[in-house]
Amino acid sequence: MRLPYLSALALLLSTGLARADGEYLQFDLGPTDSTAVGSLERSGLSTGFVWSRYTDGGSIGVSTTLSRPIEIAERAVTLRYGPTLRFDGEFDLGAKVVAESYVGTDWGGVFLIGEISSIDLSYFAMIEANRSAEGLSFAAVATGDNDGYSEQSLVLSKALGQSDWRLRLGYRLDAREVFLGVSLNTF
After folding, report:
1. Which three-class secondary structure state does DSSP give residue 141?
2. Cα(132)–Cα(20) distance, rounded to whole angstroms?
3. pTM for the complete prediction?
C-alpha cells in the first residue's frame, strides 16, 4: 500500500529546500509583556521557539519547518511550513506556514515576513527597512489571533558596532507602552 503523503513529501524534498543558514535571537521587555524569540536554520530545516509572559498568563511555542524557495511576482520568497506546538496551560498542536523575502536596495534593504498558524489562527506580519550605512532599521509589526488578541508595534533598532547584535526600542500601539530589547541575527 502506497501512502500519498509520503510521495508528496518525497517530491517536495527532491525539488530543493531553501539554504539560508543562521540564527536569530530576540528578547523584549515591557511593563506588561516580555517576549523571547529564537530560530535556528540549517540546510533548509528550521527550529524556532517563542516564549511570552503577559499580565494574565504566558505561553511557549515551538516549531520545526522545512524551507523552500519560490517566486512570487518575480520576487524570491522563502516558504516555510511544518508542525507547531504551543503550551499556555494546555497543549495545542497545529501547523504553520511562513513566507519571507528580503529585497536589497542601494541604501540597505527591506525584509518582509508573514506567518499564520492553525492554533487559534494566530498570525505575525512584519515589514522592516534597514539602512546599512548607519546600522539602523525600522519595523512595523502586527500580531494576533482569533481568540481576541491583537497588537501592532513600531520598532527602531540600532546595530552595536560591526556585530550582529542590535538594541531595540519599540512601542506597542494597542497596549500603549514602550519596550526595550536586544536581538542577534546571523542570517
Report:
1. strand
2. 20
3. 0.85
Is residue 119 within 8 Å of residue 92, measured between CB atoms?
Answer: yes
Q: Kindly report the CA angle at 31 between 60 and 178, in degrees rounded to 5?
A: 105
CB 177 within 8 A of CB 169: no
Strand partners, 155: 139, 170
Rounded to the nearest angstrom, the gap between the alpha carbon of residue 77 and the centroid of all alpha carbons in its chain is: 14
The pLDDT value recorded for residue 186 is 93
DSSP string spanning 83-134?
A: EEEEESSSEEEEEEEEEEEEEE-SSEEEEEEEEEESSTT-EEEEEEEEETTT
List Cα–Cα distances, 33 to 84, 120, 149, 156, 172, in angstroms: 22, 20, 13, 18, 10
Q: Which amino acid is at 183?
A: S
**Of the candidates 161, 78, 85, 136, the residue with the CA atom closest to the CA atom of residue 112:** 78
Q: Which residue has 516555510 as its cell numbers?
A: 80
Lookup: cell for 113: 515576513
Distance CA 158, CA 163 (A): 11
**Run means of pLDDT, 10 residues per run, the chain, 187 residues:** 39 50 96 95 95 92 96 93 96 97 94 97 97 94 94 97 96 97 94
Q: What is the structure's pLDDT at 1?
A: 36
